[in-house]
Specification:
single chain
Amino acid sequence: MVGEERTERIIGILSESFFPILMAGLQYTIPLTLITFTLGLLLAFFTALARISGFTPLVLLTRFYVWIFRGTPLLVQLFIIFYGLPSVGVTLSPFAAAVIVFTLNKGAYSSEIIRAAILSINKGQWEAAYSIGMTKSQAIKRIVLPQAVRVSLPPLGNSFISLVKDTSLAATITVTELFQKGQQIAAVTYEPLWLYIEVAFFYLIFSTVLSYLQGRLEIRYGRGVAK
């Protein structure tokens, strides 16, 4: 009898928490992912171009930026921006701090993906572009980048899916995303195991949908392995 009551209680808690956790994902996790990935991708693009520009000050500056954000933990970066900056008079909202940190972090990692994709293009492509009178910028825009996009699509897709899961770290600076909402409900219901499993279920669903969309894109652009 006790077992049946506990089972009913757990089912009731999971049913009642389903919509609040889903809404936290739709209101915070997904927007945070989309905003930071978009901004991070733009930052990564210009960082990658700067890294291969040959202009020494830009090369050194962007190399230093990538070194810092690839060499330090994402959690530490969040704490520096959200908890550290107020000590020097800079206070940010939790969501704004998360956007800044995830953008800078994702920009650093993605820039290396894009840079590697650009450098992977055969030198003959560059030479062919120069032979018909193109400048370096024209060669990059018309010849190299379209091919680099196809090469970089799979790793960038994986990076995007990884970002969905990384946003759970925003809970540490009080952003009410999926994980934070699950923690709040668990603290009241005293059922952390089942609530965290429910949270994991939502992350799994989001990641599965994105993986499917990534596979379709890879097929469309001829670089995927999915069939």
